[in-house]
């Protein structure tokens, strides 16, 4: 298992490099000029100097190489300094564009380091997106298991109807719908997520829960609809297998047969959906974060796209690609833990 994981980690390096190169070249073809937002009163020679400072006057391959050095060399050193709370790597001043004389990845829109902005937005995304995914998984698995065990029952038919609704209705519809119902008419929850809110006591904690409920519900509905169908189909496939009849013939209780033998084998394909859904839900949160004004990664990506902020878009899309590669590896490793027949020799 360790050898397989090491080999996959090594192979993921050229994979990520190829993905980053493709993303960079595609963004180079995007129309627009990052200097378009500069006031018209700025002289042309000053604009030219600003373009050179942003690296816009260099060939694309040179820009790509500088981006690689900044992402894979400069930013990891800063991250180590941040973890150790000590500038043992010759110094780092937060919120600055330079580190040991090396230029960091700079946002064209804010003129500040991209990774500093990302680290500021990640907690908000984890609060909403992470919680919604956990809630969706915890709801979907029991629904899928019980729907398969009680196939064609009232519960199974109701679950099928709800999941079809969850698949059919997109977040940009369910989000405003919940705002109209629960914020405008009922007044139960705030319509805008306050990212500056701090939890200090029970009242502030209660408000935090109130403002999280609607965006978490929107994202959890998508997760529940998808995972419960996968879980149900996988359980139905295993409930009719010969080993289930053999286990029942041996006198094992129904709970042990279903919750131990059938569930373990049924989780093997579902693990892939759960693992790959982690980076996918970050991408899906782009719409939800904009609907509820959550100051997270998704809203940051939309803002960067409208502002033609290529370094920000490049870094965020590469982070998504990195998450997909990472959770692919995690899913493959979990295969071996769930199914002893799988060997990585």
Q: How much strand content do the residues show?
A: under 5%
Unreliable parts: 87-93
Can you say what the CATH homologous superfamily of the largest domain is? MetI-like
Radius of gyration: 24 Å
Largest sheet: 2 strands, antiparallel
**Tally of strands:** 2
Amino- and carboxy-terminal Cα gap: 8 Å
Based on secondary structure, the structural category is mainly alpha
CATH architecture title of the largest domain: Orthogonal Bundle
Q: Which outline best applies?
A: globular
Structural features, described:
By secondary structure, the chain is mainly alpha-helical. It folds into 2 domains: 32-103, no CATH class; 119-338, MetI-like (MetI-like fold, Orthogonal Bundle), CATH 1.10.3720.10. It is 73% helix and 1% strand. The chain is built from 11 helices and 2 strands, in the order αααββαααααααα. The chain has helices at 2-28, 44-53, 60-84, 114-149, 154-168, 171-185, 202-239, 242-249, 254-291, 297-306, 310-338; strands at residues 98-99, 102-103. Strands 1-2 form a two-stranded antiparallel ribbon. A hairpin with a 2-residue loop joins β1 and β2. The longest helix is centred in the middle third of the chain and has 38 residues, at 202-239. The chain is globular and about 85 Å long. The model is unreliable at 87-93 (pLDDT under 50).
Which features characterize this protein?
345 residues, mainly alpha, MetI-like fold, two-stranded antiparallel ribbon, 11 helices, 2 strands, 1% strand
At a glance:
The chain has 345 residues and is mainly α. The chain contains eleven helices and two strands. The chain has two domains: 32-103, no CATH class; 119-338, MetI-like fold (Orthogonal Bundle), CATH 1.10.3720.
């Amino acid at each position: 298992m360790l050898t397989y994981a090491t080999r996959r980690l090594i192979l993921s390096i050229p994979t990520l490099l190829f993905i980053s190169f493709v993303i960079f070249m595609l963004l180079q073809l995007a129309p627009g000029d990052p200097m378009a937002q500069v006031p018209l009163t700025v002289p042309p020679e000053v604009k030219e100097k600003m373009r050179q400072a942003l690296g816009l006057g260099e060939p694309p391959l040179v820009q790509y190489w500088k981006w690689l050095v900044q992402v894979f060399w400069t930013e990891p050193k800063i991250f180590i300094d941040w973890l150790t709370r000590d500038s043992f790597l010759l110094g780092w001043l937060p919120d600055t564009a330079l580190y040991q004389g090396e230029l960091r990845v700079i946002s064209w829109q804010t003129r500040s380091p991209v990774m500093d902005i990302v680290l500021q937005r990640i907690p908000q995304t984890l609060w909403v997106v992470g919680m919604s995914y956990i809630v969706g998984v915890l709801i979907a698995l029991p629904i899928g298991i019980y729907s398969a065990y009680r196939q064609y029952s009232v519960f199974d038919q109701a679950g099928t109807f709800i999941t079809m609704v969850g698949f059919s209705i997109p977040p940009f519809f369910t989000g405003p719908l919940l705002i109209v119902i629960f914020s405008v008419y009922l007044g139960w929850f705030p319509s805008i997520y306050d990212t500056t809110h701090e939890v200090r006591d029970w009242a502030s904690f209660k408000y935090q829960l109130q403002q999280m409920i609607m965006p978490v519900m929107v994202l959890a509905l998508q997760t529940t609809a998808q995972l419960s169908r996968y879980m149900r189909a996988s359980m139905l496939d295993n409930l009719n297998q010969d080993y289930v009849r053999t286990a029942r013939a041996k006198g094992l209780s129904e709970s042990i047969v279903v919750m131990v033998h059938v569930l373990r084998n049924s989780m093997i394909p579902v693990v892939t959906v759960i693992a790959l859904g982690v980076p996918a839900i970050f991408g899906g949160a782009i719409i939800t974060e904009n609907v509820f004004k959550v100051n997270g990664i998704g809203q940051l990506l939309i803002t960067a796209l409208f502002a033609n902020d290529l370094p920000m878009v490049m870094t965020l899309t590469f982070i998504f690609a990195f998450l997909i590669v990472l959770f692919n590896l995690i899913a493959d490793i979990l295969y071996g833990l769930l199914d002893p027949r799988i060997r990585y020799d």
